[in-house]
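Fold this sequence, please.
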Amino acid sequence: MTVREKAAGTMRYHHGELREALLAAAEMELTEKGEDGFSLRSTAKRAGVSHAAPAHHFKDVTALLQGLAQRGFERLTATMKEEQAEAGDDPEALYVAAGVGYIRFAAENPALFQLMFGGRSHHGVPTEFAKAADASFSVLVNAVARLRGADALKAEEGWRDVAAAWMMLHGYAHLAIGGKLGWLTGQPFDRQRPVIADLARRALRL
């Protein structure tokens, strides 16, 4: 860092490092201030760069939020698959694990989860954002298909199963984030696991 950079409160990053630094700073900004209080200038300051530096990767605040939401969907997918990796090969266990992973991610990242499914991040969604979102949804879709059989999603009933499962999981997540399930979500997450598993099974009448 040069004397001039120190005086300006900025740092030099290699190309890829700057993007990662901005996304990390953006997540901290979002977590502390929410989307309404989110500031591109403040994010740049957190990352230790000039207010103009984000333009190298994100043309405006919406683009930065979309990049952050995309990263969120990638992590959601990883969390669901992480839970499934511990579930073995039983189709029902894999379906339940996908649901547990979905809600665990939401519980651990409430502000990010809300951004991913609404707000400015959904204005003119880029292709990579859409692919990341589809990939996370596919984990649940594939789990339901494996549970119901290879041809299940060729019929409307199969897609109703997917919808029922997603509505339950997504509804639980938003109710929990909104503080509407305090009697349950105030407990360690491991104590929520059997409840989530039971509700996931109920959604498909298992």
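The CA atoms of residues 19 and 90 lie 40 Å apart. The two ends are 60 Å apart (CA to CA).
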